[in-house]
Amino acid sequence: MGFGVLRLEGRNMALLEVDAIRFPAEDDHTLKLRAIFRHVLRIIERHHPDELAIEAQFFGKNVQSMLKLGRAQGVAIAAALHREIPVVEYAPKRVKQSITGNGNATKEQVAAMLVSILGVKDLPTSTDATDALAVAVCHALANGTAAKGPLPKAARGTGDWGSFIRNNPGRVKS
Fold first, then answer.
1. What distances in angstroms separate CA 85 from CA 32, 42, 137, 155, 170, one per listed residue?
2. DSSP label at 1?
3. What DSSP designation does 56 have?
4. What secondary structure does DSSP assign to 102-114, as a single string?
5. pLDDT value at position 146?
6. Quick check: 167 pLDDT over 50?
7. pLDDT per position as a tens digit, 31-67
8. What sign results for the dihedral spanned by CA atoms 157, 160, 162, 163?
9. CB atoms within 10 A of CB 137
10. Which of 14, 64, 69, 171 could form a disulfide with 7 if both were Cys (CB 3.0 to 4.6 A apart)?
11. Are strands 87-90 and 52-55 parallel, antiparallel or unpaired?
């Protein structure tokens, strides 16, 4: 399970921490849930966040994996609620759309845009960590509390076709 913590000052975002919690595959699932709860509480104690943003459930082919993921998400949500922190969920496509302008972007494209948005040199190679960080950045952008920083206008995905055409003349054919 990945997590990302941002500090928002005015319209600026600063990355405080990003990582992933890992467990041995043979560990009992209920013990993993307890560990997730405790780990999320430690993150809350360390950073005192105002809100928790989490990726909403998505439908997969493996029902057992989906159930385990839902339980893990529920435990993380319960830890936030235990500390009276509001929780907001975002659909995976919405996260990708807000970060890259494309709801079908790859995990690698999302990670590359996060490096640009946050102005950092690199991020962990764990896609769990970068996915979680993308949710945090999506939430900051959705609230209008953060600017996209160094992104060029053409990458912002404004939904305005006139702006897209003006900013991407080489991508439009007659």
1. 22, 14, 18, 32, 46
2. -
3. P
4. -TT--HHHHHHHH
5. 66
6. yes
7. 999 999 999 999 999 999 999 999 998 767 788 888 8
8. negative
9. 26
10. 14
11. parallel
The tokens for 125 are 């190679």
* Paired residues of 5 in beta bridges: 17
Distance of CA 1 to the CA centre of its chain: 12
What is the band of 148 on the pLDDT scale with cuts at 50, 70, 90?
Answer: low
Residues 105, 98 contacting (CB under 8 angstroms): no
Residue 20's beta-bridge partner residues? 2
What does pTM read for this prediction?
Answer: 0.81
What is the C-alpha to C-alpha distance for residues 55 and 163, in angstroms, rounded to an integer? 30
Q: Residue 5 and residue 16: Cα distance in Å, rounded? A: 5
Place of tokens 């993150």: 43
